Amino acid sequence: MQEQCRREKTNKDFLDGLLEYEGDGKEGTDRISDQNAVVKETPRLHPPIPLLLPRNVMQETNLMGNLIPKDTQVSVNAWAIGRDTECWEDPMSFKPERFLGSNIEIIGRNFEFIPFGSGRRICVGISLAEWVFHLGVASLLHYFD
Ligand code: HEM
């Protein structure tokens, strides 16, 4: 019980600290995308849904010389794309700084980085999930000096 009260107090201090944050001198999207570097690098290397959701091909399709018959079930391997040496330098290393100053976004318009899918059926929970990522990292860091 005593432990729980102590934690409540520290959480309040932590939230007060966030409210008092005056910025780091960077403005607008620069600062936002820099803060997102860890949040982006994590699903690049470890996408929570590695094959995204399965899709059905609605009509016979020729994809880069490969004929895909109608009604074939296809998956997009976001896990492999995130580790592709043609797209990423040193892909197996966890390097959030690769996203610093980069305009690669998580919202499905950069096909080398699609942990939430892309296009019409992109994840609708993307904004909520992004905030939960931040909350998770912040809660974890909160317990370290
Ligand atoms: C770590 C968190 C999450 C990840 C990695 C994730 C990932 C995905 C992926 C890969 C898809 C398939 C997109 C495609 O095939 O192009 C998807 C679809 C979807 N997601 Fe998420 N998601 C997350 C969180 C959420 C949350 C929090 C919600 C709701 C509050 C949500 C709701 C949905 C729905 C409804 C779809 C189906 C959209 C459609 O088919 O039109 N997701 N998600």
Automatic annotation (TrEMBL):
GO terms for molecular function: heme binding; iron ion binding; monooxygenase activity; oxidoreductase activity, acting on paired donors, with incorporation or reduction of molecular oxygen. Heme binds at C123. Keywords: Heme, Iron, Membrane, Metal-binding, Monooxygenase, Oxidoreductase, Transmembrane, Transmembrane helix. The chain crosses the membrane at residues 122-144. Its cofactor is heme. Belongs to the cytochrome P450 family. This is Cytochrome P450.
